[in-house]
Design the sequence.
């Protein structure tokens, strides 16, 4: 499923780069770039982006099997990182209230 994060206050769709920029902040609230009202990432989308975290350990046996050079490993993980960051905004759903994991 592909989502485009939409602000629940003003209904504006967040641009991809705005979502990426806001994903890198440590605080749980993400102010909307348009109306500055706080938005929170839903529990469901947190779980979904957590699944992306499994991609890296899963890739290790494949990388080891291919016996790449150091530069090869570096290139692989750089592109993997860029790929994961690009996917993240499409998994993000916003809500007006903070949802806790437990
Ligand atoms: Zn807004």
Sequence:
């Amino acid at each position: 499923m592909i989502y485009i994060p939409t602000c629940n206050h003003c209904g504006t769709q967040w641009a991809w780069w705005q979502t990426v920029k806001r994903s890198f902040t440590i605080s749980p609230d993400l102010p909307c770039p348009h109306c500055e009202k706080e938005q929170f990432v839903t529990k469901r989308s947190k779980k979904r982006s957590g699944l992306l975290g499994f991609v890296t350990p899963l890739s290790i046996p494949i990388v080891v099997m291919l016996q790449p050079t150091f530069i090869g490993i570096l290139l692989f993980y750089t592109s993997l990182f860029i790929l994961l960051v690009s996917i993240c905004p499409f998994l993000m759903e916003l809500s007006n209230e903070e949802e806790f994991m437990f």
Remarks:
- The chain has a mean pLDDT of 87.
- The chain has one domain: 16-95.
- The pocket of zinc ion is lined by residues 7, 9-10, 12, 32, 34-35, 37 (CB under 6 Å).
- The helical segments are 16-23, 43-52, 55-66, 70-87.
